[in-house]
Design brief:
Layout: H1 15-25, H2 29-39, H3 48-61, H4 65-76, H5 85-90, H6 92-107, H7 113-123, H8 127-132, E1 138-144, E2 151-157, E3 160-167, E4 171-177, H9 188-199, H10 203-212, E5 215-217, E6 224-226, H11 227-235
Antiparallel strand pairs: 1-2, 2-3, 3-4, 5-6
Helix pairs in contact: 1-2, 1-3, 3-4, 3-6, 4-7, 6-7, 9-10
């Protein structure tokens, strides 16, 4: 690895390899804090040093939660504009091992279940759902009806599971109950996400996914459409 070309978010090329060497010797909180600040900005930007560090972080991930979390944070940013696709491609074997590690971690039903679930989605290249998936305690998604183009609010959480038109003064009006997908109806990433949540007894997450990948009725024209399809087509990041 030619670290002389791998600048971090502060423009330095020598500090990250030094910190990685320290992290491999000792599990010091200040080391991981600085690594996090240098490899991932708060606005979810990553840099050449971020991807250059990935293989070493992934080697540490099996025994170090901080390494696992930082590697996941970098992967969740991989859909952005960073001009490092070649560096990410070089990490493919390590990322494949990371997917297996995260899947085993999820089976243990850890406290950081949702974060690890989202990290696994990113490691699978599902950057869109990794970025927007919530815990469905109070989640809202905005979609345009594909038939009449009105903006529809989709609520999945403590306030209910419905489609509505959001009014500035009255809130969500003309609510229509969502139609969750059955396990047999789910396909592709929706099915994999749901099966994983069911396997791990993440009941609330599984129920939310079934609704997110189900269907909604437009309050304006009464047409019925797939929620996930419309949301993903409007919000999926440009690669």
């Amino acid at each position: 690895m030619n670290w002389a070309q791998m600048y971090d978010c502060r423009g330095d090329v020598d500090r990250v390899p030094e910190l990685l060497a320290r992290a491999e010797r000792e599990d010091a909180a200040e080391v991981w804090t600085e690594l996090g600040h240098r490899l991932v900005l708060e606005c979810d930007l990553v840099f050449p040093a971020s991807f250059a560090a990935l293989p070493r972080l992934l080697r540490l991930a099996s025994r170090n939660p901080r390494a696992r979390g930082l590697a996941g944070a970098i992967l969740r940013c991989a859909a952005g504009h960073h001009d490092c696709d070649d560096l990410l491609a070089d990490c493919a074997p390590a990322v494949a091992e990371f997917r297996e590690l995260l899947d085993r971690h999820l089976r243990s039903r850890p406290d950081d279940y949702l974060d690890s679930f989202r990290d696994l989605l990113a490691a699978e290249g599902q950057y869109h759902w990794s970025a927007v998936l919530g815990d469905f305690s109070d989640d809202f998604y905005q979609v345009d009806c594909p038939h009449c183009a009105v903006e529809v609010t989709i609520a999945i959480g403590g306030h209910g599971r419905y489609s509505a038109v959001r009014d500035w003064h009255q809130g969500d009006v003309d609510r229509r109950a969502l139609r969750p997908a059955s396990p047999e109806e789910l396909r592709g990433i929706g099915r994999r996400m749901h099966e994983r949540a069911v396997r791990d007894d993440a009941v609330g997450l599984a129920d939310g996914i079934a609704h997110l990948f189900g269907r909604a009725e437009c309050p304006r024209c009464a047409s019925v459409f797939g929620i996930a399809e419309e949301y993903a087509s409007a919000h999926r990041p440009v690669m």
